[in-house]
Specification:
Layout lengths: L1 H24 L11 H8 L17 E2 L2 E5 L4 E5 L4 E9 L37 E4 L10 H6 L6 E4 L1 H20 L2 E10 L3 E3 L2 E3 L1 E2 L4 E2 L3 E10 L13 E8 L15 H8 L9 H7 L10
Antiparallel strand pairs: 1-2, 2-3, 3-4, 4-7, 5-6, 7-12, 8-9, 10-11, 12-13
Length: 295
């Protein structure tokens, strides 16, 4: 009897230890995976490269509806009549990533021309829409200055909470996973149309008409192994991810559901998204729907 009791107690203790060890070994899912040797070497040599390397999609310049803004952290075409960027373009590699915490210092962009309305954080208050980043905070964590720049309101669009916090968050995490695997990315994000559905219902504008709520939100991602001469390394086999989502609370959390072609986004927007890439390569990669992994 004593032996049986001792055996039961031993098995119970062993089971408890196994459960305890299992819990201790659970790691939070950060979207990043253990680097292999090649990825470690690649990321060690990664550099910060030009945010407009793939081109200026709309030929942005000095027009109030297509105003070119170049910051160290990203470049954009800003539309003063919509109170949002038409598109934002940025480079992402391990050289941009560090341990700087999220600054959360949302504020007006006082570098905009004085003739422009400068959107404030309170313009979104109570609207049912998030202040949705174009260039994500987590893509610029090397320095406080870099991270803080992503909280300028010129980098924001009114984004439905489900769209922003689930679908787009999942895609942004996946982009950083690709970087952690030894890649560098060129990302262009934009929006078009008017009217979206947030947590407080359908709206077309905020702030008394000063900020337009987009109907659709898109992103194009060019994936390259870390290297130099990036534009010349884009070939017909280069992975290009293009997605186009509704700005709605009724949206799948799986971004892969919304994959499309660069050609289709260009047809909707009138932009030339990868204009610096050779036309022969563009004709292939812009017509292809990505079928790669989503996590």
């Amino acid at each position: 009897m004593k032996k049986s009791l001792h055996r039961v107690l031993y098995l119970a203790f062993a089971g408890l230890m196994l459960v305890s060890c299992s819990k201790d070994n659970v790691q939070p899912d950060t979207g990043l995976r253990e680097l292999d040797g090649a990825a470690k070497v690649a990321n060690a040599t990664a550099t910060k490269d030009g945010n407009l390397a793939m081109g200026n999609p709309s030929g942005a310049g000095t027009s109030y509806s297509n105003y070119l803004i170049n910051k160290a952290q990203y470049s954009m075409s800003y539309n003063s009549y919509r109170g949002t960027p038409n598109w934002v373009s940025w480079h992402l590699s391990a050289a941009w990533l560090g341990s700087t915490p999220r600054q959360d210092d949302f504020r007006a962009d006082n570098s905009l021309p004085t003739a422009f309305y400068r959107v404030t954080p309170s313009d979104y208050t109570g609207s049912g829409f998030d202040r949705g980043h174009n260039t994500p905070s987590a893509d610029r964590t090397l320095t406080v200055t870099d991270n803080s720049a992503t909280f300028l309101m010129s980098n924001m669009i009114p984004q439905a909470p489900t769209n922003n916090q689930q679908t787009w968050a999942n895609l942004e995490n996946y982009c950083r996973t690709l970087v952690n695997q030894g890649n560098e990315l060129y990302i262009i994000m934009g929006q078009y149309g008017k009217g979206g559905t947030g947590s407080a219902g359908y709206k077309e504008t905020l702030a008394g008409g000063k900020v337009t709520v987009p109907n659709r939100i898109w992103k194009v991602i060019v994936v390259l192994p870390v290297g130099t001469g990036d534009v010349s390394r884009v070939t017909t086999s280069t992975r290009v991810i293009a997605i186009d989502t509704p700005n709605s609370t009724s949206i799948s959390s799986s971004w892969g559901t919304y994959r499309t072609t660069v050609d289709a986004i260009e047809a909707k927007t009138g932009y030339n998204l990868l204009s610096n890439v050779s036309s022969s390569v563009q004709s292939v990669i812009e017509a292809r729907v990505d079928s790669g992994p989503t996590q």
